[in-house]
Amino acid sequence: MSDFIVGLTGGIGSGKTTVSALFAARGVSVIDTDEIARQLTAAGGEAMPVIVAEFGPGITDGAGALDRNAMRRLVFSDPGARQRLEALLHPRIARIALQACAAASTPYVILAVPLLVESGGWKEYCDRVLVVDCDEALQVKRVMARSQLAENEVRAILSAQANRAQRQAIADDLIDNNAEPSVLAAAVDALHLRYLDLARQKLAAKTGAKC
Ligand code: ATP
Protein backbone atom coordinates (compact mmCIF):
# COMPACT_ATOMS: atom_id res chain seq x y z
CA MET A 1 0.00 0.00 0.00
CA SER A 2 1.38 3.33 -1.06
CA ASP A 3 0.82 6.44 1.03
CA PHE A 4 3.01 8.93 -0.82
CA ILE A 5 1.61 10.54 -3.96
CA VAL A 6 3.67 12.54 -6.42
CA GLY A 7 1.37 14.51 -8.73
CA LEU A 8 2.92 14.80 -12.18
CA THR A 9 1.75 17.54 -14.49
CA GLY A 10 2.81 19.70 -17.43
CA GLY A 11 1.37 21.31 -20.52
CA ILE A 12 0.46 19.49 -23.70
CA GLY A 13 3.50 17.83 -25.23
CA SER A 14 5.77 18.85 -22.36
CA GLY A 15 6.93 15.28 -21.78
CA LYS A 16 4.66 13.85 -19.06
CA THR A 17 4.30 10.46 -20.77
CA THR A 18 8.03 10.25 -21.41
CA VAL A 19 8.81 11.07 -17.76
CA SER A 20 6.11 8.68 -16.49
CA ALA A 21 7.71 5.88 -18.49
CA LEU A 22 11.08 6.57 -16.85
CA PHE A 23 9.53 6.32 -13.37
CA ALA A 24 7.71 3.13 -14.39
CA ALA A 25 11.02 1.70 -15.64
CA ARG A 26 12.34 2.23 -12.09
CA GLY A 27 9.51 0.10 -10.73
CA VAL A 28 7.27 2.97 -9.62
CA SER A 29 3.49 2.61 -10.03
CA VAL A 30 2.12 5.22 -12.41
CA ILE A 31 -1.57 6.11 -12.28
CA ASP A 32 -2.76 8.11 -15.26
CA THR A 33 -5.97 10.11 -14.83
CA ASP A 34 -6.32 10.51 -18.62
CA GLU A 35 -6.35 6.73 -18.95
CA ILE A 36 -8.99 6.47 -16.20
CA ALA A 37 -11.11 9.09 -18.02
CA ARG A 38 -10.80 7.07 -21.24
CA GLN A 39 -11.94 3.90 -19.47
CA LEU A 40 -14.88 5.69 -17.84
CA THR A 41 -16.05 7.04 -21.20
CA ALA A 42 -15.38 3.95 -23.34
CA ALA A 43 -18.28 1.80 -24.52
CA GLY A 44 -19.72 0.19 -21.38
CA GLY A 45 -17.68 2.61 -19.21
CA GLU A 46 -18.96 3.38 -15.74
CA ALA A 47 -19.67 7.05 -16.52
CA MET A 48 -21.54 6.49 -19.77
CA PRO A 49 -25.05 5.97 -18.31
CA VAL A 50 -24.92 9.26 -16.38
CA ILE A 51 -23.38 11.10 -19.34
CA VAL A 52 -26.14 9.87 -21.64
CA ALA A 53 -28.76 10.77 -19.02
CA GLU A 54 -27.31 14.31 -18.86
CA PHE A 55 -26.59 15.00 -22.54
CA GLY A 56 -28.75 12.53 -24.47
CA PRO A 57 -27.80 9.57 -26.69
CA GLY A 58 -26.45 11.93 -29.41
CA ILE A 59 -23.31 12.30 -27.31
CA THR A 60 -22.27 8.68 -27.98
CA ASP A 61 -20.69 7.10 -31.01
CA GLY A 62 -22.12 3.99 -32.68
CA ALA A 63 -20.48 1.70 -30.11
CA GLY A 64 -21.75 3.57 -27.03
CA ALA A 65 -18.53 5.38 -26.15
CA LEU A 66 -18.35 9.15 -25.60
CA ASP A 67 -18.12 10.82 -29.01
CA ARG A 68 -15.35 13.33 -28.36
CA ASN A 69 -16.09 15.37 -31.48
CA ALA A 70 -19.77 15.67 -30.55
CA MET A 71 -18.76 16.66 -27.01
CA ARG A 72 -16.31 19.26 -28.35
CA ARG A 73 -19.05 20.77 -30.53
CA LEU A 74 -21.45 20.84 -27.59
CA VAL A 75 -18.90 22.49 -25.29
CA PHE A 76 -18.22 25.08 -28.01
CA SER A 77 -21.89 26.00 -28.34
CA ASP A 78 -22.74 25.65 -24.64
CA PRO A 79 -19.92 26.65 -22.25
CA GLY A 80 -21.81 25.22 -19.25
CA ALA A 81 -21.63 21.76 -20.84
CA ARG A 82 -17.96 21.39 -19.96
CA GLN A 83 -18.66 22.03 -16.27
CA ARG A 84 -21.56 19.55 -16.35
CA LEU A 85 -19.34 16.89 -17.93
CA GLU A 86 -16.53 17.58 -15.46
CA ALA A 87 -18.97 17.38 -12.54
CA LEU A 88 -19.87 13.88 -13.69
CA LEU A 89 -16.36 12.71 -14.48
CA HIS A 90 -14.07 14.28 -11.89
CA PRO A 91 -15.41 12.62 -8.74
CA ARG A 92 -15.29 9.25 -10.50
CA ILE A 93 -11.75 9.81 -11.79
CA ALA A 94 -10.63 10.92 -8.32
CA ARG A 95 -12.21 7.89 -6.60
CA ILE A 96 -10.62 5.38 -8.99
CA ALA A 97 -7.25 7.16 -9.00
CA LEU A 98 -7.04 7.35 -5.20
CA GLN A 99 -8.07 3.70 -4.84
CA ALA A 100 -5.30 2.79 -7.29
CA CYS A 101 -2.80 4.93 -5.35
CA ALA A 102 -3.73 3.24 -2.08
CA ALA A 103 -3.55 -0.22 -3.65
CA ALA A 104 -0.12 0.33 -5.21
CA SER A 105 2.65 -1.72 -3.67
CA THR A 106 5.51 0.71 -4.36
CA PRO A 107 6.80 3.15 -1.68
CA TYR A 108 5.39 6.08 -3.66
CA VAL A 109 3.21 6.50 -6.74
CA ILE A 110 3.26 8.88 -9.67
CA LEU A 111 -0.23 10.30 -10.22
CA ALA A 112 -0.26 11.84 -13.70
CA VAL A 113 -2.81 14.68 -13.86
CA PRO A 114 -2.40 16.77 -17.04
CA LEU A 115 -4.75 19.48 -15.75
CA LEU A 116 -3.61 19.47 -12.12
CA VAL A 117 -3.34 23.27 -12.08
CA GLU A 118 -6.54 23.89 -14.02
CA SER A 119 -8.88 21.49 -12.23
CA GLY A 120 -8.36 22.38 -8.59
CA GLY A 121 -8.64 19.77 -5.90
CA TRP A 122 -5.91 17.36 -7.04
CA LYS A 123 -3.14 19.18 -5.26
CA GLU A 124 -4.56 18.37 -1.84
CA TYR A 125 -4.09 14.64 -2.52
CA CYS A 126 -0.45 15.09 -3.52
CA ASP A 127 2.51 14.98 -1.16
CA ARG A 128 4.61 16.57 -3.93
CA VAL A 129 3.88 18.21 -7.26
CA LEU A 130 6.33 17.48 -10.08
CA VAL A 131 6.07 19.70 -13.15
CA VAL A 132 7.57 18.79 -16.53
CA ASP A 133 8.44 22.00 -18.29
CA CYS A 134 9.76 23.07 -21.66
CA ASP A 135 9.60 26.11 -23.93
CA GLU A 136 6.30 26.65 -25.70
CA ALA A 137 7.99 26.53 -29.09
CA LEU A 138 9.22 23.01 -28.28
CA GLN A 139 5.78 21.94 -27.04
CA VAL A 140 4.28 23.09 -30.35
CA LYS A 141 6.99 21.39 -32.40
CA ARG A 142 6.75 18.09 -30.52
CA VAL A 143 2.94 17.95 -30.58
CA MET A 144 2.87 18.76 -34.31
CA ALA A 145 5.46 16.05 -34.97
CA ARG A 146 3.36 13.38 -33.30
CA SER A 147 -0.17 14.50 -34.35
CA GLN A 148 -2.10 15.81 -37.33
CA LEU A 149 -2.65 19.15 -35.61
CA ALA A 150 -1.66 22.42 -37.28
CA GLU A 151 0.38 25.00 -35.39
CA ASN A 152 -2.62 27.27 -34.73
CA GLU A 153 -4.57 24.30 -33.33
CA VAL A 154 -1.75 23.40 -30.93
CA ARG A 155 -1.42 27.03 -29.90
CA ALA A 156 -5.18 27.21 -29.25
CA ILE A 157 -4.88 24.22 -26.88
CA LEU A 158 -1.86 25.82 -25.20
CA SER A 159 -3.66 29.09 -24.61
CA ALA A 160 -6.62 27.26 -23.03
CA GLN A 161 -4.25 25.61 -20.53
CA ALA A 162 -2.49 27.11 -17.53
CA ASN A 163 0.72 28.88 -18.50
CA ARG A 164 4.24 27.87 -17.51
CA ALA A 165 4.45 30.44 -14.70
CA GLN A 166 1.20 29.15 -13.15
CA ARG A 167 2.51 25.58 -13.24
CA GLN A 168 5.91 26.53 -11.90
CA ALA A 169 4.21 28.36 -9.03
CA ILE A 170 2.76 25.11 -7.66
CA ALA A 171 5.77 22.91 -8.42
CA ASP A 172 7.73 21.33 -5.59
CA ASP A 173 10.03 19.81 -8.21
CA LEU A 174 10.62 20.69 -11.83
CA ILE A 175 11.99 18.63 -14.69
CA ASP A 176 13.47 20.73 -17.47
CA ASN A 177 12.66 18.96 -20.75
CA ASN A 178 14.24 21.42 -23.13
CA ALA A 179 17.17 19.17 -23.98
CA GLU A 180 17.60 15.70 -25.44
CA PRO A 181 15.37 13.00 -23.90
CA SER A 182 18.53 11.17 -22.80
CA VAL A 183 19.20 13.76 -20.07
CA LEU A 184 15.83 13.03 -18.45
CA ALA A 185 17.06 9.75 -17.00
CA ALA A 186 19.51 11.44 -14.63
CA ALA A 187 16.84 13.91 -13.47
CA VAL A 188 14.39 11.05 -12.83
CA ASP A 189 17.08 9.06 -10.98
CA ALA A 190 17.68 11.97 -8.60
CA LEU A 191 13.98 12.53 -8.01
CA HIS A 192 13.39 8.81 -7.52
CA LEU A 193 15.93 8.74 -4.67
CA ARG A 194 14.41 11.84 -3.11
CA TYR A 195 10.86 10.47 -3.30
CA LEU A 196 11.92 7.12 -1.82
CA ASP A 197 13.47 9.01 1.04
CA LEU A 198 10.47 11.33 1.57
CA ALA A 199 8.09 8.37 1.44
CA ARG A 200 10.21 6.57 4.04
CA GLN A 201 10.17 9.64 6.27
CA LYS A 202 6.40 9.97 6.00
CA LEU A 203 5.91 6.32 6.86
CA ALA A 204 8.31 6.60 9.81
CA ALA A 205 6.49 9.70 11.11
CA LYS A 206 3.19 7.83 10.85
CA THR A 207 4.34 4.68 12.58
CA GLY A 208 6.57 6.49 15.08
CA ALA A 209 9.58 4.51 13.86
CA LYS A 210 13.04 6.05 13.45
CA CYS A 211 14.42 6.63 9.93
P1 ATP B 1 0.38 15.17 -23.96
O1 ATP B 1 0.07 16.29 -23.02
O2 ATP B 1 -0.01 15.54 -25.32
O3 ATP B 1 -0.15 13.86 -23.52
P2 ATP B 1 2.98 14.66 -22.89
O4 ATP B 1 3.19 15.78 -21.96
O5 ATP B 1 2.62 13.33 -22.30
O6 ATP B 1 1.98 15.04 -24.04
P3 ATP B 1 5.07 13.27 -24.33
O7 ATP B 1 4.05 12.44 -25.04
O8 ATP B 1 5.95 12.62 -23.34
O9 ATP B 1 4.36 14.55 -23.70
O10 ATP B 1 6.00 14.03 -25.38
C1 ATP B 1 5.43 14.69 -26.51
C2 ATP B 1 6.22 14.28 -27.75
O11 ATP B 1 7.52 14.84 -27.66
C3 ATP B 1 6.40 12.78 -27.89
O12 ATP B 1 6.38 12.44 -29.24
C4 ATP B 1 7.78 12.54 -27.27
O13 ATP B 1 8.41 11.40 -27.81
C5 ATP B 1 8.50 13.81 -27.65
N1 ATP B 1 9.51 14.22 -26.65
C6 ATP B 1 9.40 14.23 -25.31
N2 ATP B 1 10.51 14.71 -24.74
C7 ATP B 1 11.36 15.03 -25.73
C8 ATP B 1 12.68 15.58 -25.79
N3 ATP B 1 13.36 15.92 -24.69
N4 ATP B 1 13.24 15.77 -27.02
C9 ATP B 1 12.56 15.45 -28.15
N5 ATP B 1 11.31 14.92 -28.17
C10 ATP B 1 10.71 14.72 -26.98
What can you see in these coordinates?
This protein has a 5-stranded parallel β-sheet, with helices on both faces. With 211 residues, it is of the alpha/beta class. It is built from 9 helices and 5 strands, in the order βαβααααββαααβα. The chain folds into 2 domains: 1-28 and 106-203, 3-Layer(aba) Sandwich (Rossmann fold), CATH 3.40.50; 35-101, no CATH class. It has helices at residues 16-25, 33-40, 48-55, 68-77, 80-103, 136-146, 151-160, 164-170, 184-207; strands at residues 5-9, 29-32, 109-112, 128-133, 173-176. α2 (33-40) crosses α5 (80-103) and α6 (136-146) crosses α7. 53% of the residues lie in helices and 11% in strands. The mean pLDDT is 94. Bound molecules: adenosine-5'-triphosphate. Adenosine-5'-triphosphate (ATP) is lined by residues 10, 12-18, 114, 142, 146, 177, 180-181. Adenosine-5'-triphosphate is lined by residues 10, 12-18, 114, 142, 146, 177, 180-181.
